[in-house]
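ok trying this again, last paste got cut off
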Amino acid sequence: MTGQEAQSPNPGKKNDSPVDRRDFFKEVIRSVMQPAAEFLDRRLKPLMPEEETPGDYLRPPGALYEHQFRTTCSRCGKCAQVCPVQAIRIMKSDDPALDGTPYIVPSLKACVVCDSLACMNICPSGALKPVPKEEIRMGLACMRYETCVRTRGEDCRICVEKCPLGPRAIVLHEGRVEIIVSGCVGCGVCENQCPTSPRAIHVEPA
């Protein structure tokens, strides 16, 4: 066979084998789906709780003032590990000053002001300073009377009965729930247990 006879009769024609066609369609699908997947990932990621920086949260008991807390906290996570009710969460944030710091969202899980005050006593950095139970100031419970079912004549007293500090922090007075400012530690149990939506009692961070 001569060199001329050995040449393909259609030298300019691409190989059209089944394998090549499959590779071609794979690339087409990948080029279409990849941008769509990346777009959905960007849109959905902020909705994932574990990636959010919470908008309204409390620091654990004994926390220093916020600016001091952020620079003192070692981000070790020990306070979250020893919390008996797993109320303490670890923040994930794009802000380095917040990322890795512990926080509490009472509506999800409230601090119960445990007898051992475990989080304060295990903190190695001093960001959580051991203080007596009655001196804890995580925040202050605030009433929304227009939402409270007692204003409609219902005999709800859940917030009063569930408060771990009792009448030192919250009482019923002339049919209304009243917060004792000097006694409320802001643990959030009242907010967590409130049956209304939105909740009639809300803890404002310290």
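PB: full thing came through this time. The chain has a mean pLDDT of 85.
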